[in-house]
Design brief:
With 377 residues, the protein is of the alpha/beta class. The chain is built from 14 helices and twelve strands. It has two domains: 238 residues, Aspartate Aminotransferase, domain 2; 129 residues, Aspartate Aminotransferase, domain 1. The strands form two sheets. The chain has a seven-stranded mixed beta sheet, with helices on both faces. Strands 8-9-12-11-10 form a five-stranded mixed beta sheet. The longest helix has 20 residues. The model has no long low-confidence stretch (mean pLDDT 95). The protein binds pyridoxal-5'-phosphate.
Length: 377
């Protein structure tokens, strides 16, 4: 039966590991699993390889994304690190130039040391220019962080296919509820499950989703061998979070649009970055490839002093890193998520003392607007 995404969010992909009829997925707090006989297995041997609670989560995320298999990790960065184990010294990867700061830090300090070179491209034309015989993959975030630029996934996929490159999309910001990278040619979809999937600012997790079974097998081997698997307790929380993904995404987007409209009317605001604005340079691509614009807004205030005042004065909104949870959070990308980016790179990307990033939560739009309003004063 073909079900709507909101139904899959609630029920997931139930495999019957439980015989009691429990409606919620049980937490299988077992490190190891007894074998029925020599050379036999229940399908579960050791929780680093497979755990029944996490299998439910993995199958649910695979179904939501339209992939065939997903692997759960202890954090989004654990997922990116595992992903990098697909590559060998001498390999080259092209990444979009506006990336989550932690991913940039991993590429700069870990991947480079391990002999995997990463170069950055701002636009599609630049991706093609960067390709060398050593290039193995293209890695993008769309919308990007924190500048909210949108990449035409089908166009990148065509380039990737032509050059036999893996096309990797970090889908943390929009989630499969608003964007399905596999239907635009992605090979691997990445999530920080800490954000919208979990949705409650209470658990870290990461996911890699694939369509191809050979790739799935490689990733399963990597997690089993390197060990950054998800705890089943945390897996349970992410499953619970996903149950409300559809309603959260709808409400957060609705509130985000109200806040964007209000921000546009404020003298203290120089610029608003939100892909749902008609003036946004990528508005048309967004409309073509996504079914929504999400709940993330970046904006520039008049000067650094105003930015500091906002961060120090907000009351309902918390000044904290992270995003995608029920509590609205505001961050200062320059000092937080993107602090490890060299200053010249930061400035070139517009990540300066005036830029703030807001993750819209589930509070009433009026309260969030009132909070922002009083914070400018
Ligand atoms: C947070 C984040 C990550 C890293 O995930 P963690 O769960 O914090 O390790 C990767 N990509 C994006 C877009 C993120 O927002």
């Amino acid at each position: 039966m073909c079900m709507d995404i909101s139904t899959i969010c609630v029920h997931g992909c139930k495999k019957k590991f439980d015989t009691t009829g429990a409606v919620a997925v049980p937490i299988f707090a077992s490190a190891t699993f007894a074998h029925p006989g020599v050379g036999q297995s229940t399908g579960f041997d050791y929780s680093r390889s497979l755990n029944p609670t996490n299998v439910h989560l993995e199958d649910t995320v695979a179904a939501l994304e339209g992939g065939s298999e997903a692997v759960a990790f202890s954090s989004g960065m654990a997922a990116v690190s595992a992903l990098m184990e697909l590559f060998s010294p001498g390999d080259h990867i092209i990444a979009s130039d506006d990336l989550y700061g932690g991913t940039f830090r991993l590429f700069l300090h870990i991947s480079q040391k391990n002999g995997v070179k990463v170069s950055y491209a701002a636009a599609l034309e630049d991706i093609e220019k960067e390709i060398t015989p050593a290039t193995k993959a293209v890695f993008i975030e769309t919308p990007s962080n924190p500048m909210m630029r949108v990449t035409d996934m089908a166009a990148v996929a065509a380039v990737a296919r032509k050059h036999k490159l893996l096309f990797i999309v970090d889908n943390t910001f929009l989630t499969p509820y608003f964007q399905k990278p596999f239907s635009h040619g992605a090979d691997i979809v990445l999530h920080s499950g800490t954000k919208y999937l979990g949705g409650h600012n209470d658990t870290l997790s990461g996911m890699l989703v694939v369509k191809d079974s050979v790739l799935a097998e490689k990733l399963r081997f990597i997690v089993k061998t390197t060990g950054a698997c998800l705890s089943p307790f945390d897996g349970f929380l992410i499953i619970r979070g996903i149950k409300t993904l559809a309603v959260r995404m709808e409400r957060m987007q609705e509130t985000a649009l109200k806040i964007v409209q209000w921000l546009l009317e404020q003298n203290a605001i120089k610029k608003v970055y939100y892909p749902g604005l008609k003036e946004h340079p990528d508005y048309e691509i967004s409309c073509r490839q996504t079914s929504g614009f999400g709940g993330m807004i970046s904006f520039s205030v008049r000067d650094g002093k105003t930015a500091e005042r906002v961060l120090e004065n907000v009351k309902v909104i918390k000044y904290a890193e992270s995003l995608g949870g029920v509590e609205s959070l505001i961050t200062y990308p320059m000092l937080q998520t993107h602090a490890d980016l060299p200053e010249s790179e930061r400035n070139a990307r517009g990540i300066n003392e005036c830029l703030l990033r807001l993750s819209v939560g589930l509070e009433a739009a009026e309260d969030l607007i009132a909070d922002l309003k009083q914070s400018f004063i």
